[in-house]
Amino acid sequence: MKPTFVFLMIAFFAHTAATGANIPTEPATCTPVVNNVELAAGTIVYLEMTETVESGRATVGQNIVFRASADVVVDDHVVIRTHAVAMARVAAIEPTTFGHPEEITIEVISVQATDGTMIALHSGQQTFKGRYPNEQVIVQPGKKFTANVVNTTKIKF
Predict the structure, then answer these.
(1) Are 90 and 105 in contact, with CB atoms under 8 Å apart?
(2) Tens digits of residue pLDDT in 96-123
């Protein structure tokens, strides 16, 4: 059995040398295929608050954590998943005045795509008013917001 194996090996190498077969000496390099989907500007993103914001404790510029409340799908690929982290901020707090209740204004800033990219959003500003003068405004978790993608963005999948 051993002589047969040695003979086959010699025959293989002789055949390779005689036919001029090219055996690569360096590993082949592969160009990775990067698949992108383009998330168009203006795409609607549905969001909800995940924390309570109280006008008496909040400060202008304070960050608020949101999450996506629905998948955003482009060309059969999910580019923003439900529960993806989104950020908003307190844009303004108007104290109570005679006859007017306190107000707090919140604006959405960004949301995270499936590839980790933070996508800029525009939601306009939503203002919440208290019911009575001298009463703080409390915005509860679960409050729904909608926002739009600001710039067309390529998302890797």
Answers:
(1) yes
(2) 888 888 999 999 999 999 999 999 999 8
Give the distance between the most distant pair of CA atoms in the chain: 106
CB-based contact 127:156 (threshold 8 Å): no
| Token pair listed for 104 | 């707090």
Is the full-model pTM beyond 0.90? Answer: no
pLDDT above 70 coverage of the chain, percent: 78
CB 53 within 8 A of CB 90: yes
Cross-strand partners of 39 = 153
- Burial of 84 by CB count in 10 Å (0-12 exposed, 13-18 middle, 19+ buried)? buried
Q: How many domains does one find in the chain?
A: 1
Q: Is residue 3 part of a domain?
A: no
